[in-house]
From TrEMBL:
Family: Belongs to the NAD(P)-dependent epimerase/dehydratase family. Dihydroflavonol-4-reductase subfamily.
Keyword terms, alphabetized: Oxidoreductase
Pfam family, one: Epimerase
Residue ranges of every copy of the NAD-dependent epimerase/dehydratase domain listed in the record: 3-262
Gene Ontology MF annotations: oxidoreductase activity, acting on the CH-OH group of donors, NAD or NADP as acceptor
Name of the protein in question: NAD-dependent epimerase/dehydratase domain-containing protein
UniProt entry tagged with the keyword Oxidoreductase: yes
SUPFAM superfamilies given in the database record: NAD(P)-binding Rossmann-fold domains (SSF51735)
Keyword Oxidoreductase: yes
């Protein structure tokens, strides 16, 4: 089958494309400009015509994906802004919501052969900020971020603006399939990952140009910055495999699924970085066990994802070793 991947040049998406190709799918990668597709064409050259590009200059425009969806069997919709620099929350919310609803609308109208659409949401659409530790699951929704942005607008926190964009986009997707259930040939599966970490294969000019999540880990390991606190995480390769399994497993249809390897404190990553670095490495050793007393305010259940998708998630130790290799290669 052929799969349309939106935002194909992004950190997560390039791994999704690669995993799809490895599993024998043909892939149509949607990017904003021919320039943004060059690296992909080179990276996947060995797959010949099993990889093709489609240019979608503005995902917020009505009908933006009308041509892109024609002839594909499934969609992986990953395109959405992930950064904390927005002043006006609409900078994040518009492309998140309109991009999601737009691709679903194009699939409804022109995606006659489509069987499943997978949307990359986030635990940003699940979480709630609370003063005491909590363990959340797929029944939780982040109305809190939407309320904050509605009340405060530009004055809302950067985190709330991003979280509201993911929450509103995911809710819009579920509303869409409910509204049009009698008119569509496909069902929806939503991936809700926490912080995505691990090696990069997308185009990264320098460490400073890393995408938001990979940069956080880089700064923690290489610069010893941002070492307080922590979160939950998943390796980008496991998340990519989850996106592919979500197409293959019947039971993934109609489900939102948390894809979570577990909780970390930034100190833990430093501890695991103590395994390989040679004396010449600038990636400093951490202190093993330094994060063990961390209180994790937010954790997520991951049983549903493991049951439906059947993936054994990578350990922090393996992911840390792989990213350090990458940093050392980049120099
Ligand atoms: P990247 O920034 O690496 O990729 C984002 C992708 O979305 C790029 O292809 C980008 O295109 C595209 N995009 C962003 N804004 C727009 C816009 N306004 N119009 C069109 N395309 C746009 O981020 P990630 O790979 O990390 O994120 C991929 C998805 O995963 C997102 O939906 C994100 O919310 C979600 N996610 C990521 C997590 C993480 O920790 N990384 C955690 C949870 C969810 P361009 O290069 O042209 O800007």
């Amino acid at each position: 089958g052929k799969v349309l991947v939106s935002g194909a040049n992004g950190y997560v998406a390039v791994w999704v494309v690669r995993t799809l190709l490895e599993e024998g799918y043909s892939v149509r990668g949607a990017v904003r400009s021919p320039d943004k597709g060059k690296h992909l064409t080179e990276l996947f050259a060995s797959y010949g015509d099993k990889f093709e590009l489609v240019i979608v200059p503005d995902i917020t425009k009505e009908g933006a994906f009308d041509e892109a969806v024609k002839g594909v069997d499934a969609i992986e919709h990953t395109a959405s802004p992930y950064h904390f620099q927005a002043d006006d929350p609409a900078e994040l919310i518009e492309p998140a919501v309109k991009g999601t609803v737009g691709i679903l609308e194009s699939a409804r109208k022109y995606g006659k052969s489509i069987k499943r659409v997978v949307v990359t949401s986030s635990t940003a659409a699940v979480l709630n900020v609370a003063p005491t530790p909590q363990i959340l699951d797929e029944s939780n929704w982040n109305d809190q971020a939407v309320e904050e942005v509605t009340e405060k607008g530009r004055a809302a926190s950067a985190a709330a603006k991003y979280r509201a964009s993911k929450m509103l986009a995911e809710r819009a997707a579920w509303d869409f399939v409910k509204k049009y259930k009698d008119e569509i040939s496909w069902d929806l599966s939503v991936m809700n990952p926490p912080l995505v970490l691990g090696p990069t294969i997308h185009e990264v000019a320098s460490a400073d140009a890393l995408n938001t999540s990979a940069r956080m880990l880089h700064d923690a390991l290489a610069k010893a910055e941002g070492l307080t606190g922590g979160g939950c995480w998943i390796d980008v390769r496991d998340l990519a495999l989850a996106h592919v399994r979500a197409l293959q497993k019947e039971e993934a249809g109609g489900e939102r699924i948390i894809i979570n390897a577990g909780a970390f404190s930034w100190q833990d990553w430093r501890a695991y970085s103590s395994t390989p670095p040679p004396a010449s490495s600038k990636y400093q050793k951490g202190t093993p066990g330094a994060g063990k007393d961390a209180v994790h305010l937010l954790q997520y259940k991951n049983e549903k994802g493991i049951r439906i998708l059947g993936i054994q998630y990578r350990s922090m130790e393996d992911t840390a070793a792989d990213v350090i290799k990458e940093y050392e290669a980049r120099g």
